[in-house]
Amino acid sequence: MTREENYIEHALHVGEGLTGLSLERLGFEPRMEDLTEDQRSRLNADDLAWIGSITPERRDRSLFQAKLLAGALWEASAVLIDQLFEDLDALRNLDRIDRQDIANTFVLSGLPARPADKYDVRFAQQFLVTTADMTGALTRGWTRPACVAQELALRCLFDQVEVVQDLYSLDLADGWRGVLEQHMLEDTDSEMLYQNAMDGFEGDIELNMQLGLAPMKVQDWFEPFNDASVPPFVR
Cβ distance 147 to 230 under 8 Å? Predict the structure, then answer.
């Protein structure tokens, strides 16, 4: 058995523990009998036609790929937390932290670059805790991110899944990332933090109100959305 085959077998096994997301949310294309009565009642004519068009072979493939994605998410979440511990340890050993130090980290380097000078030890601690809280929802039952930091952590998680996919040549479904973003994010407003053309929008109160954005300054990233809650440590 090849290294890739061993990993696939492992991923399928550990993926069984990822109980916070249904296989349908991971891309499984179900049969009518797989749906609940409530789900069936909400189907329109196009939905019924789509379900009827799915061949057994395509359905089996979607089931395999959904289970493989569950395993990749499980593995990526563990690697993500481990690497955040390494990032934190590296920053603690520095007398002074600059942008180049952040660029050399495993995970923090994947956060928006503009406020990187604010990524100190305390920030790394907060981000680690809020990321651990977010990944815990993969098993206890998924709830959408509770703050901007968790939205960014979810992006980091997807980036890590891509690393795992490339490293082990995983046959994940095309467009799996878009499917997960649709089911796991409320919106993608935090993506604006990565766009050079939007430089400075975080401080434009009028623009933020017009667009209905949550506060996006780095000091607001750990503030909970509306009725959401975050771990006390990050507050």
Answer: yes
Look up residue 178 and give its two tokens: 């878009």
R_g over Cα of the chain:
20
pTM of the model: 0.90
Cα–Cα distance between 207 and 190 in angstroms, integer? 14
In whole angstroms, how far apart are CA 48 and each of 43, 132, 215?
6, 39, 41
Burial of 221 (0-12, 13-18, 19+ CB in 10 A): buried
Identify which has the larger pLDDT, 130 or 5: 130
Token pair listed for 122: 């305390």
pLDDT in tens, 59-89: 999 999 999 999 999 999 999 999 999 999 9
The backbone torsions φ and ψ at residue 222, rounded to the nearest 5 degrees and listed phi first, read: -100, 5
d(CA 84, CA 34): 39
Encoded tokens for 147: 């703050």
